[in-house]
Amino acid sequence: MINEEIRAREVRLVGPNGEQIGIKPFREALQMAVDANLDLVNVAPQAKPPVCRIMDYGKFRYEQQKKEKEARKNQKVVDVKEVWFRANIEEHDFQTKLRNVVKFLKDGDKVKCSVRFRGREITHAAIGQRVLERVKTEVQELSVVERQPKLEGRSMIMILGPKTGQ
């Protein structure tokens, strides 16, 4: 809240340079802000009495937006990439898909490894389990298992996350 939006009889006032002015009646604090050609900003409304600061509110908002933008720029959005395997996958196909898993993990993305069972393959879920266990052992130095292999419907799913501190 700024200027006339503040609803308090008296406020603890902080000057434009951060110095403590003391407890003042609201009207007097507002007049001091107007005289300095600045705004009276309520920085701690829950305090008794509320703490208000004399500052340029437009400049303050601009600085806050700049800080938020910088913080968003430094964030890394983690995607979940999915790699499908088959229960009876051939060696070359397995290596190709494994290269994709390694690439995704090195890029810092999570990887959802899935084995899709078709037809009567579902009766041999242990074969799909072995495929996922092999993937896990092949990339154990790059990843951490976030979710162990688990059968969900006609798919067995395992989630790998990149190891931190690389």
TrEMBL record:
<dbReference type="InterPro" id="IPR036788">
    <property type="entry name" value="T_IF-3_C_sf"/>
</dbReference>
<dbReference type="InterPro" id="IPR036787">
    <property type="entry name" value="T_IF-3_N_sf"/>
</dbReference>
<dbReference type="Pfam" id="PF00707">
    <property type="entry name" value="IF3_C"/>
</dbReference>
<dbReference type="InterPro" id="IPR019815">
    <property type="entry name" value="Translation_initiation_fac_3_C"/>
</dbReference>
<keyword id="KW-0963">Cytoplasm</keyword>
<dbReference type="Pfam" id="PF05198">
    <property type="entry name" value="IF3_N"/>
</dbReference>
<keyword id="KW-0648">Protein biosynthesis</keyword>
<keyword id="KW-0396">Initiation factor</keyword>
<dbReference type="GO" id="GO:0005829">
    <property type="term" value="C:cytosol"/>
</dbReference>
<dbReference type="InterPro" id="IPR019814">
    <property type="entry name" value="Translation_initiation_fac_3_N"/>
</dbReference>
<dbReference type="GO" id="GO:0043022">
    <property type="term" value="F:ribosome binding"/>
</dbReference>
<dbReference type="GO" id="GO:0003743">
    <property type="term" value="F:translation initiation factor activity"/>
</dbReference>
<dbReference type="InterPro" id="IPR019813">
    <property type="entry name" value="Translation_initiation_fac3_CS"/>
</dbReference>
<comment type="function">
    <text>IF-3 binds to the 30S ribosomal subunit and shifts the equilibrium between 70S ribosomes and their 50S and 30S subunits in favor of the free subunits, thus enhancing the availability of 30S subunits on which protein synthesis initiation begins.</text>
</comment>
<dbReference type="GO" id="GO:0016020">
    <property type="term" value="C:membrane"/>
</dbReference>
<feature type="domain" description="Translation initiation factor 3 N-terminal">
    <location>
        <begin position="2"/>
        <end position="71"/>
    </location>
</feature>
<comment type="similarity">
    <text>Belongs to the IF-3 family.</text>
</comment>
<protein>
    <recommendedName>
        <fullName>Translation initiation factor IF-3</fullName>
    </recommendedName>
</protein>
<dbReference type="InterPro" id="IPR001288">
    <property type="entry name" value="Translation_initiation_fac_3"/>
</dbReference>
<dbReference type="GO" id="GO:0032790">
    <property type="term" value="P:ribosome disassembly"/>
</dbReference>
<feature type="domain" description="Translation initiation factor 3 C-terminal">
    <location>
        <begin position="78"/>
        <end position="163"/>
    </location>
</feature>
<comment type="subunit">
    <text>Monomer.</text>
</comment>
